[in-house]
Amino acid sequence: MGLVMNMYEVIIDILEKKGPVSFHTICEEMNERNWTSKSGKENPVQVSQVKSVVTRKKDLFSVTGDIVSIREEKELQSLTAMIGRFPGPSFKVEVDFVHQRFYMFEWRNASLMQKDREEKTIYIGNVEQFKKEVIRLKIWNWERDYQPEALVLDGISWSVILKTKGKLYESEGLHTFPENWHKFCRAISQLIGMPFK
């Protein structure tokens, strides 16, 4: 599989490709993929292990009878992130998780009239890897608004809109950020092939 993934990430990957399936099907698929845990163990995955992970990650998974699915409010569809400095430059990244592509926009000199749209057709980053990072960062837990205690006349303004199958999560701020903001910016930078900060 290349990168070593957490078991819950493999389960998400299986559910995204196959749709809602039974614990037994997830277990079989993981064993067919020869999934190896981060500890390097290659023992066959047991149904009890899959059930344990799904139970621990109730915020991600829904279970009806024996069928496991991704919760609609955590099934990522798209993400839009904007970051701007006064007087500039400003960036906007739109990620389409469904079609596995992204777009990047850049504004210079704080003039919206000079908006340049550039569609990235070159394979730069990995949308699938970025998606896993968004899930790890739990962006849906970010507050709605991040504002400094003191008056700020310039600085960095930002916004993030995460659309899932069942919910829209929006966060924005001015010179104040969520705790894991730097990890989020690093993940976007890896995706687009240039600094996003």
TrEMBL record:
Top-level taxonomic group: Bacteria
Stated name of the protein: Uncharacterized protein
Source species taxonomy: Bacteria, Bacillati, Bacillota, Bacilli, Bacillales
Species this protein is from: Robertmurraya siralis
